[in-house]
Every structure is written in C-alpha cells, then in structure tokens.
Design a protein that fits this description.
Gyrase A, domain 2, four-stranded antiparallel β-sheet, alpha+beta, six-stranded antiparallel beta barrel, flat, disordered N terminus, 3 domains
Length: 374
C-alpha cells in the first residue's frame, strides 16, 4: 500500500513539475494592478458564531458532548416545547462553530460563504443542515445570519467496525449561506493621498507599479515609499470620485517580479518549484535503503497417538534488507527548472526523496532559491 501511494504521488508530482517546466522560464510575469496591490486601510472583519447542524444520519454528537443537547433543549424551549437536556438522546445533531469574513465595503443584503466546523465528537457532517446562526464581529455586534445545507466535498461510510472516508467530514461549507444584516460603516477615505499595499513586498515590483501609474496619470502621480507601499496622489478630477480612480487603475498591466522559491509540504508530499529557481554546479547521488520484516505463524502439534506434548504456535520471522543503487547526476552551473526536473526524474526520485535533495542542495549552497516549508 505504501509503495502504491508513493508511486501515485511520484507520478502526480512529475506531471505537475513537467507542466511547469514546459513553460518558458521567465523572470517576470504580467498581471493586472488589482492582483498586485490593494488599497491600504481596514481589512475584512472576521465573523464567528455558535450553531447547530441537524439532519445527520447517526453521525452527530454523542452523550459525551453535553452542550449540543443543551442547545437543542434551549431551541425547543423557544419554540414552545419543554424538554429537559438530560432526557434528550439524539445522534443526528452536531454543535459547530460557524466562521466567515465580512468584506470591508459589504452592505446589507450581500451573501457570504460560511464554514461550519464541528466542536464536539461528531463523526461526520455529511447531509446536515445548519440552523439559523448569528455571526458576530470582534465588537460583539451581529453582522450576518447564516443558514443552509452543508457541502463537505466528500463522503464516508462503514459497517462492522470498518469505515472509509473521502476528504475531511467534520468541516463543511455553506455557499452564500450568510446574509449580511448590517454594514461595518466604513467608506472610502476622503484624502488627497492613497497608500497602495503590495500583496508581495518587492522593490522591483513596487517600482514598476509606480511607473505604470505615472504612465497613465502623469509624472509624479505615484512614488515608492518602501517595498510594500506605493503612495498615490489623487488627481484633481478624481477628488470626489475615488471609486472611478481605482477602477481605472486596477485594469493597468504591471510586470511583477517573482522570487525564486521552492514550497514544500512534507505532510502531503507536495512540492512546487518556481520558474526562477537556479542551481549552481553540483552532483547529486541518492540511494534508498528498505527494510522489510515479515512474520509467518506456524503451528507445531504432536502426533495423533502421542500422550504428551502441547500444540504450539511458532512465529517464523524473516528480515529482508535491500539498498538501492545510488546514481550520480551532475548539474551544470545555472541549471534551470527543466534541468532540475530531468535530473530528478533520472534519479527516479519520489516526492519524499525530492524534499531531501532540495534541502541538501540548499545546505550545500547550490540551490539559489528560498525554501518554504508549510
């Protein structure tokens, strides 16, 4: 099973990296200004609330989770039914925390996506419906109400002590499940200077953003304050129409500079190699050592006419140690992503092997890129 999963991950990784390698390695990419910068100011407001999910198929909270039955009893009390929490025994409800992000300029009537996460011992939220839940901001005010059927993007089932699950079953989403009740009250700033924040702080990209704005509005309209901020002087004709100014600037094309970066997720074996990654002259050798231990139980019993002796189960253990052949692959100075991919494929490396090779190249000073482990 392990070998099969490793082979599957290896094929997936090879396909992804080869797709990246097929594209020309360029240091710059063209993007819209709205994808590179954001208006500096208030951010989205995080919302949170406590709610109940009903309609589960005996996969909800059990007796160990007391607050879910208390919440059910309180809700029934409000509906005119008097029920004692200690007399309630159901398995088709689950207590959840509901979260969402309220955009800065969202007004009443806007719908938001919400996420419901189990906080009890529910096994699955599959097929459940979230009851009306008040979502509050950090100040305690209710900004939205959430309700609707959950989508978990997977399924689960089992019987006789065996179970199978696809994706995470205790977290679900309700698309457009929250209706904003009141806005945050924030408006566009009435100032003569705006600050544009870079989504990825970089000197080269910030300079190009300022150049693109100056080419459209005129010299002196924008200047770089630091790698993460570009100051924008509002033209006279846009003093009372800042939304029109931002709509005009957001469509501008900007050439952004991307850093050389290798992102590694050791939990899932996912590796993403940026197109700007370069490798100095190096030689890589990688070999695998596998140890397999198997046990077979043999039964030893006396003959049919024997008056003495006991039946004994004797374990027969076998240990097999194999070491793979390490092949030496040379990488030339300034090797690009394509050369790296071909070299690693030559080694027959799995995702776990590539993680070790990347980290070793970085430690040797041969990998000219930042390694980010998530």
């Amino acid at each position: 099973m392990t070998s099969l999963l490793s082979l599957r991950h290896s094929r997936t990784l090879t396909a992804v990296v080869l797709l990246l390698a097929a594209q020309p390695a360029a240091a710059d990419t063209t993007a819209r200004l709205k994808d590179v910068v954001a208006l500096q100011g208030p951010e989205a407001v995080p919302l949170m609330g406590y709610g109940l999910v009903v309609g589960l198929n005996k996969t909800g909270d059990r007796r160990q989770t007391i607050f879910s039955t208390q919440s059910l009893a309180n809700m029934l009390q409000q509906l005119g039914l008097s029920v004692q929490p200690n007399q309630v025994k159901v398995e088709n409800i689950a207590a959840v925390m509901v979260t969402a992000d309220l955009p800065v300029f969202a007004r009443a009537g806007v719908k938001l996506d919400v996420t419901a996460s189990s906080i009890g011992d529910a096994r699955s939220l599959q097929g459940g419906t979230l009851l009306a839940t008040a979502l509050r901001g950090p100040n305690g005010q209710v900004y939205a109400l959430a309700q609707g059927p959950l989508s978990i993007g997977g399924f689960g089932g089992g019987a006789g002590g065996n179970s199978v699950a696809v994706n995470h079953l205790t977290v679900g989403r309700v698309p457009n499940g929250a209706l904003v009740q009141q806005a945050t009250g924030l408006t566009m700033p009435a100032t003569e200077t705006l600050a544009l924040s870079m989504r990825e702080p970089d000197f080269a990209t910030a300079s190009r953003v300022a150049a693109a704005i100056n080419a459209d509005l005129g010299d002196g309209a924008a200047k770089v304050l630091d790698p993460g901020t570009v100051a924008l002087n509002v033209p006279a004709q846009y003093k009372g129409a800042l939304p029109d100014l931002m709509a005009r600037l957001e469509a501008l094309s900007v050439t952004s500079d991307t850093p050389a970066r290798v992102v590694i997720n050791e939990r899932s074996g996912t590796i993403v190699v940026g197109a700007n990654v370069r490798i100095a002259a190096a030689a890589v050798a990688h070999g695998n050592l596998s140890v397999r231990i198997s046990t077979r139980f043999e039964v030893s019993q006396p003959s049919a006419l024997s008056r003495t002796g006991d039946t004994v189960v004797v374990p027969n253990q076998q240990v097999d140690v194999r070491e793979g052949t390490a092949r030496l692959v040379a990488l030339e100075e300034g090797a690009t992503l394509d050369a790296v991919v071909r070299a690693l494929n030559t080694l027959g490396a799995t995702p776990r092997d590539i993680i070790a090779i990347m980290q070793a190249l970085k430690a040797a000073g041969a990998l000219h890129a930042e390694i980010v482990i998530i």
